[in-house]
Design brief:
The protein has 291 residues and is α/β, with parallel strands linked by helices. The chain folds into two domains: 89 residues, Rossmann fold (3-Layer(aba) Sandwich), CATH 3.40.50.10860; 134 residues, Rossmann fold (3-Layer(aba) Sandwich), CATH 3.40.50.720. 40% of the residues lie in helices and 16% in strands. The chain has ten helices and eleven strands. The strands form three sheets. The chain has a six-stranded parallel beta sheet. Helix 1 packs parallel to helix 10, helix 6 runs parallel beside helix 7 and helix 6 packs across helix 10. The longest helix has 21 residues. The chain is globular. It starts with a strand and ends with a helix. The mean pLDDT is 96.
Length: 291
């Protein structure tokens, strides 16, 4: 059984990006610059954004972290995004989700310039992805594809099952796995909360992507012998025995499923690290296009 280690794969990608950044700066060009907007003090969001800022520094990117109180007026947020859109020294913009309930999430996503949409959530980015055009791919599905490439996982002609249909992971993942590319060309079944016979469908999966946000949902009796398991779930579960008071759990019951899988991503240490790698690659792409 192969552990699809996100730490190893992301480190290799980051080293490659770092080399490119050094080459640009030696030519007298500025480094790529990512601007992140964080609203409120959600613990998980704080952790994610801090990790993104740290990773930017490690490979030589510039980064700006812009914080707002959770009661921020929507117009103030939109004005800040407009300012960043027009800033020639900013290459990528991300607004950390989820947003407070009084803010229209879709309006915020659409306010970001498609040229700086390094999260890949803008409708322009999504439309280009569907048509197979070059675009910013949502960071998590992009990271998963980078992982499949790094470990040379054969996807051609395989049956891939994706559990979860969000615009952030499930839908773009199904498009990428079915696309006519080296690590695509799978036959994809996209499952969701209204899917009948989910267990039976999963048992036919050569590649199973779990992205539904329910800790330990996928059990061994849902997995075919020798399947490749991609666990996208990252949920904080209270645990009094942990120093932090919680543990990070994936959507897959790792211990029992690992015994049947040919390859599996751990949580933590798997897809989460690759998501950041995908974001960094998108930011460098935005920088190159703008330069």
């Amino acid at each position: 059984m192969l552990i699809l280690d996100g730490k190893i794969a992301s480190a290799a990608i980051k080293e490659s990006l770092k080399t490119e950044v050094i080459a640009f700066t030696k030519q007298g060009k500025r480094a790529p610059h990512l601007a992140a907007i964080l609203i409120g003090n959600n613990g998980a969001s704080e952790t994610y954004v801090a990790s993104k800022v740290k990773n930017c520094a490690e490979i030589g990117f510039q980064s700006s972290l812009i914080r707002f109180d959770e009661n921020i007026n929507e117009k103030i947020l939109l004005d800040k995004i407009s300012e960043l859109n027009n800033d020639e020294n900013i290459d990528g913009i991300l607004v950390q989700l989820p947003l407070p309930k009084h803010i229209n999430e879709q309006k915020i996503i659409e306010a970001i310039s498609p040229l700086k949409d390094v999260d890949g959530f803008h409708p322009v980015s999504a439309g280009k992805l569907v048509q197979g055009l070059q675009t910013f791919i949502p960071a998590t599905p992009f990271g998963i594809m980078l992982m499949l490439e790094f470990y040379n996982i054969d996807t051609k002609g395989k049956h891939a099952v994706v559990i979860g249909r969000s615009n952030i992971v499930g839908r773009p993942m199904s498009i990428l796995l079915s696309s006519n590319t080296k690590y695509g060309n799978s036959t994809v079944t996209l499952c969701h909360s209204h899917t009948h016979n989910l267990k039976e469908i999963c048992l036919h999966a050569d590649i199973l992507v779990a992205a539904l946000g329910k800790p330990g949902f996928v059990k061994a009796d849902m997995v075919k012998e020798g399947a490749v398991i991609i666990d996208v779930g990252i949920t904080r579960v209270e645990d009094a025995t942990a120093k932090s008071g919680f543990r990070i759990k994936g959507d897959v019951s790792y211990t029992e499923v690992a015994e049947k899988a040919s390859a599996i991503t751990p949580v933590p240490g798997g897809v989460g690290l690759m998501t950041i790698a995908g974001l960094l690659k998108n930011t460098l792409q935005a920088y190159k296009q703008r330069m």
